[in-house]
Amino acid sequence: MEIFGVRDDLIKDYREFTSSFVDIRDRWVREHVEAREATGYQWPDPWLSLNPNFASGGSVTDLVTEGVLHPLAEQIFRLKEHSPDGRVLRLHQHQREAVEAARAGHSYVLTTGTGSGKSLAYIIPIVDRVLRAKQAGTHQPGVKAIVVYPMNALANSQVEELRKFLEIGFPEGPPVSFARYTGQESEEDRRKIMSDKPDILLTNYMMLELILTRPKERQGLVQAAQGLQFLVLDELHTYRGRQGADVALLVRRLQDACGAGAIQCVGTSATMTTEGDWSAQQRQVSQVASRLFGVPVDPAQVIGETLDRVTDAAVVNADVLKQRLGAAPPEDFEGFVRDPLVAWVETVLGFESDRPAGQLVRRRRSLTTREAAGLLATEISGDLEECRTSIEAVLETGSRVINPATGRPVFAFRLHQFLSKGDNVHVTAEPPEERFITSKYQVTAPGTDELGRTRRLFPLSFCRECGQDYLAVSRITESGATRYEARRDIDASGGDEASGYLFISSDYPWPTDLEDALIEGRLPTSWMTTGLGGSLVVVPGKEKYLPEAVQVTVDGIETNSEQATAAAYVPSPFPFCLRCRAAYEQQRAQDFGKLAKLSAEGRSSATSVISKSIVRTLRAHGEDLEDDAKKLLAFVDNRQDASLQAGHFNDFVQVVQLRGALHRALCAAPEGLTHEVVAQRVTEALGLTPAVFSTTPNPRYSQKDEVWRALREVIGYRLYLDLERGWRVTMPNLEQTALLRVAYQDLPEIAADEDNWQGRHKLLCEDDPQHREEVATQLLHELRRSLAIDVPCLTEEGFRQIELLSDQHLKEPWSLPDKERPPLVGAAFPGPSKPGRARQDAYLSGRGAFGWYIRREYDDRAGTRLKSDDAQEIIRDLFEVLEDCGLLVKVVPENADGVAGFRLRSAVIRWEPGDGESPTEDRVRRTLDQEGGPRVNPFFRDLYRDASSSLSGLHSKEHTAQVPVGLV
């Protein structure tokens, strides 16, 4: 597995994702961001950690022969993955020292690195003590050792290891009994533990507190632990501060309750202290452990690592390294360990350079790949990139070459990659070619201007369509003076005079006079109408949202001075882009969907993209990995975040798979798909096998048909839900990525048939067929995007039927979640809303958003500004014609005003392939004057189009204290 290639693929995916939401227009800002990305600002060079080899302490057989361990230990401590008679364990020197310390009756602390086998350093002595007691005939039923973990996950992991050692190869029962008691156990398991006391009890400190205080446990387990011999605290460094004091008191109470006067206490930690030399570290750890355990822990019993080399440092010199550079490392063990570059890598990445004579000390500070390459390049006067490539080749080869003495790879190394969201760009209020640009948050730019004024910095937001930048500001007026300050919450709509944006442009400045703006066509078409005398005027009601030409100094003061910068103040909510004239007709809408900032990719979405990239790469290129290793383990701050992220990832993966399958199905059917076949074709395009989605892995006979029917019903239901208006900016749908075009059967013919329009509003009657079709299409889009669709799966009864099928035949992630609610599907009414209206109903009135759309479309054709009553009549006529022609169905009878409720017939919807370049416009809520339509997000377009099929089988699960016992 080429881990550096996995890293490169990850960075490529993350970079494409974070940069896909905006295409920056300004050359200087774009160059600044590109330069920032080139330095790895969001994805710095990875850090390398090389686990040095530990000195050997001999095999378990050796210790049995020497009398250090009981003879049965040789049968117990074996690697039994493939056979009960697996290879005998070889111990590290620090593990042997721990066994000997326990044999001598000492309390001790093991402070060795991660992956050094610390758990064996207390499990082997405990097992040995029990075996010897049984051999001597002094063994009594009861708890001999209590092992305390800070997390249940560690206890769970240890139980699995104990099962391998103590159960495999012992069909008559384990020679030493053990049990977990952490609060995850069922009532039956607890009763069994109470009646059949284990020799070793694994728990956590919270449960240990309950064992000491609950009468039932105190009578059962505490009494069984009288004369307790071992107390182990794993991950000793976690017990600090108040929690450490609580645990220290708990330990003393346990000793008193168990009458454990001769108890041996054991602690393990990889990160206790790094200050001073080894003797100083031993003294410090000894003091901490003695206070925590309440028993003396001698400094000599603080056991550290004894490291060993596998290579010979003497073969390293600059000339040999220079000759060696560029050649592939040997793949055999003997050749590999004699390689001078391998020796150099082990020396530099594995050990401290200032270690005491004769002692090998693990490197405390990791190096980045660039730093390591820089050291090698300096030493041999070589090329930096060639050195980096050679070091990576050595590490990857070392992870494959097996050391015959240990049975493990020669090198075990870790790659630490840090990722961050992009910081926003801040600029001064100056012309683009002169302004100061930075990505570091600060209030002012360094220095002052020629007049000694402070240069205030403002965060940038960018138009999602054209990439024009805007300074996010707060406008403050006090004592008749106006100033601008940076606005921190630049996602909020504001909606008051204090929130807005500054538009500054040298090549396309905003006119100082409204008349000039109208003449130059700087306002969106939908904002202009013809007034008296034939001149252009602003549509009534829009005046208060117009940009205001202002002059701003570098310190944020509004003035008329010639030394100020010409700008335009744009109120928030953002009304329209002053560059591309993309207009947003709903003034109350949030600005987040209109303007982007460079740090708004969304944490959950980013995490899902990262997780997807890593696991997908492991599955695609990890031929040498076991299937169980092709997984990702993620840690979060709390259980709520774990649940949220697991759910988000599963939703992300399923949505991508469904959309990708729909795209593939459309590519195979250029003529489009209808209601009758779309679910079947998408199911086929998914390419799932019953083992992936069925509760019955190999269904046969009639069950097979029912299983596939259940899957088709769920997929059809999901496809209809995805027809709703795309609201997730961080996950645009197929329409928004131009991979899907939704059309309506017979609509061109309906619009062209003049008989349909006779007796309707004059503007409709005289309209040309193409425009009538466009207007009718927008109306049907409104119903579809509101889910006012007449289809069984969106009714409560239909949903319940799908739910029953899903419960019987499907499993996660393709089954419906237990708590999923039926969709809120209402009706569309050609009239104004009434008090008490249902939230899911849509009202298309002459004064609403669709009414404004109608007036924009027909003002010029009418030769005058259309009244809302005319717009209402046109809307009503459209509903009636579309109902007469079978595209709409009446589902709610006329009310007292004669207004009925309608839904779109599912049979008339056609899913058609898009071109990947021209997304469907929502012309009701925003208008675009630029050619080419809305901008396409390239990352998600390519994800749906090219990579969605590779996500099959990806699934996330949370593992917290809230997870049911059966899932642990």
From TrEMBL:
List the protein's name.
Answer: RAD3-like DEAD/DEAH box helicase
Annotated spans, Disordered: 816-840
State the superkingdom: Bacteria
InterPro entries documented for this protein: ATP-dep_Helicase, DEAD/DEAH_box_helicase_dom, Helicase_ATP-bd, P-loop_NTPase
What SUPFAM superfamilies does the record point to?
A: P-loop containing nucleoside triphosphate hydrolases (SSF52540)
Read off the PROSITE patterns from this record.
Answer: HELICASE_ATP_BIND_1
Q: Which Pfam families match?
A: DEAD
The GO terms describing molecular function are: ATP binding; ATP hydrolysis activity; DNA binding; helicase activity
The Helicase ATP-binding domain sits at 99-290
